[in-house]
Every structure is written in structure tokens, then in C-alpha cells.
Amino acid sequence: MGLKVGIIGLPNAGKSTLFNALTGSKVAAKNFPFCTIKPNIALTPIPDMRLFKLQEIVKSRCITPEYIEFIDIAGLVKGASKGYGLGNQFLNQIRTADAIGHVVGCFSKDLCSSKYMFENVLNDIHIINSELILSDIARCTEKISFLKKQNKNNNIKNQIYILEFFLEALSNKKHHTHKKTENLHDSIISELNFLTLKPKMLILNIHENSSKNIEYIEKIKKYFNHLEIPVLKICATFEDNFINSLQKKSSKMYIISKLANSNLGTIINCGCQLLKLNNFFTIGKKEVRSWLINYKTTALQASGKIHSDFQRGFIRAKVISFENFMHYKSMNLAKKFGKIKLEGKDYLVKNGDIIEFLFNV
């Protein structure tokens, strides 16, 4: 399953530095506007300490995590939706993302008081949100105009109705309009890839020495809590230096293990949570592997993640929870105590399930 998180923000907010830290890349991250022009794209493993715990018991030769893709686009400026600063180009680059990470720079030495920091951060967030809304308004209006020129059958009329309803919400400046349109699961909505409908997290990029005067961060969290937008705090420069130091003398698996309990790991896992994703494991002497799936994925659908033959010839799924396996540390012992279940094709896979699929082709 492909998972893409787009990184957006004003120029010099620290987006490219964060991108480097998250992905181990070395893209230019300079303190001047539009240092990034073309989008930077890279994969990073989803850190999950359960993989290492499973490997320790099974003694498998390798670990195979799932991956998340990050897209770092150039800084957006006020007027980006009208094309200022190549804004339209940059906004279109982010439409393919499944979720958005909005980076806000909170490290200016000129901002002293907590009140001023709070107001300044809100203003920066408002600039970006407004550009996303205006971009979607333009996209929605253009599509409505196009549809009204077509032969108005029932399908076209329904699409126009849905888009006009959505346009009204946008025009009222109600960002995160998925709160109002969550039941409009129409192909026209999916087709247009509206930016304001994408799940979002706010990433406050603080200065390395900002141990004091961070009361405003709690205010920001409280402010966005009713919108169910997670607010995360990070020092991108510190994290980038940390990852660079690990890369010089550590293995890939060791770096992944360190990511799990870091602020970077929190951001990566938040992306999974925003998209309501779970994972299940397959284990053996060859490898311990994580598989990313949607919530409410059935055993039959999960089997197809591994191989189409598994799905085509599905018989049963032997399932044990991660917690039970860690308790008994042996499939034979877990089976003796009735902890391994035989499930059918409609079984809803739970997060952390360890599964062996039985099939016949």
C-alpha cells in the first residue's frame, strides 16, 4: 500500500531540513525563499519496535518494515493559489499526497512573548490554510462550470449538486471541510483531489534552544483540538543532525530502531494514524515482515497483499495477536492454550495480528 505525506509550509519553515531528517536525504536546505523548486520525494521505513521483538523470538534472518513516502515541495506564499511564487505548480504537486504535514517555523529570535508567538504561528497557519481553500475553490468552480456545459443527465446533476455543496463550505472558509462532507463519497470528489479534504497534522519546528517560552505550543494544541488536527513539536535541525550522526556509524536496522522512540517516529506514525491504517505481521526463519492495511481490512483482502495466489485460493487464516505471541513466545505453546484462531475470509484483521494464510491454488 502506497502512503504519501506531503510536506508544506511557508518558505524557510524548515520543510527540507525535516524532509532530510525523516528520509536520510541530503537535499539543499538553505535559508532563502524557494531553495526548493522541484519536489523532493523519498521513502522512509515506518519504525515499529514490534518487528525487532518478533525477530528476537523467531531468530529470522531479516526484518522488512513497511515504508512511507514523503514529498517536500517549495514554500508557499500568500497568493500561491493565484500563481504567485509558482504557487499553482507547487499546490498541484501536493494533490497526489494522501495526507499533509504542515510545517510551521517557530524559531525566530524576534518573537519573545508567548502571546506574540501564539499569534504569529496562527497567522502563518492561516496563510497556508487560506491558499489551500482558495486553490480548491478555483478547482471546484472550474469543474462546476465545465459540468454545466454538458448534457445534464441525473449523474451530471448529482455531481453538480455535490460540488456546489462543497463549494459553499469552502466559500465559508471552513477549512477541513471533510467534517461537513464526510458522507459525500462520490467519485467526483476523489477525482479532484481537494487539498482541504486531506487529513493533516501541524508540525511546529522550534529552535534548538527553545526550552523556555513554549507555553504557546499548548495553546496551539488546544486551539486545533476541536478540528482533530494533531499538533507535533520538533526541532528539525536537531533531528537532522541526530540522523546524520547515526548514518555514519550505524546499520539501517539500528537507525530504524532509534526512529521508533523519536520525534521523527511520532511524525511517521501520525501519518499512519491520520489515514486510519493498521498493520499485520508474517513471521518465519527467512524474515519478519510488516504489512500495511486499511482499517476494516478482511483476511481475504489482507492475503492479497502478500500474493494474488493467496487471495485466489484462500482457505483459512491462522491468527494470533502480537500480545499473545509475546506472552507464550512459541506457536506450539500458544496453540496448546488455544490462542491461535482459525479465521475465515470475512475476519477483520486487527492491528498487530500475526497471520499465516492457508491457501490452495
Descriptive account of the structure:
It is a single chain. The strands form 3 sheets. Strands 2-4-1-5-6-7 form a 6-stranded mixed sheet, sandwiched between helices. The protein has a 3-stranded mixed sheet with strand order 3-9-8, sandwiched between helices. The model is unreliable at 32-36 (pLDDT under 50). The protein is built from 15 helices and 12 strands. Helix content is 45%, strand content 19%. Helix 4 (114-148) runs antiparallel to helix 5. The chain has helices spanning 15-23, 49-58, 87-94, 114-148, 154-171, 178-181, 187-192, 215-225, 236-249, 252-260, 263-274, 299-306, 308-312, 322-328, 331-336; strands at 4-8, 40-45, 62-64, 67-72, 99-106, 200-206, 231-234, 277-283, 287-294, 314-320, 341-343, 354-359. It folds into 2 domains: 4-274, P-loop containing nucleotide triphosphate hydrolases (Rossmann fold, 3-Layer(aba) Sandwich), CATH 3.40.50; 296-359, Ubiquitin-like (UB roll), CATH 3.10.20. The protein is an alpha/beta fold and 361 residues long.
> Into how many domains do the coordinates divide?
2
Q: Which class of secondary structure composition applies to the elements?
A: alpha/beta
Query: How would you state the average pLDDT, rounded?
Result: 85
Q: H/E order of the elements?
A: EHEHEEHEHHHHEHEHHHEEHHEHHEE
**CATH 2nd-level architecture of the largest domain:** 3-Layer(aba) Sandwich
Pfam families: MMR_HSR1 (PF01926), YchF-GTPase_C (PF06071)
Cofactor: Mg(2+)
Domain OBG-type G: 3-276
GO molecular function: ATP binding; ATP hydrolysis activity; GTP binding; metal ion binding
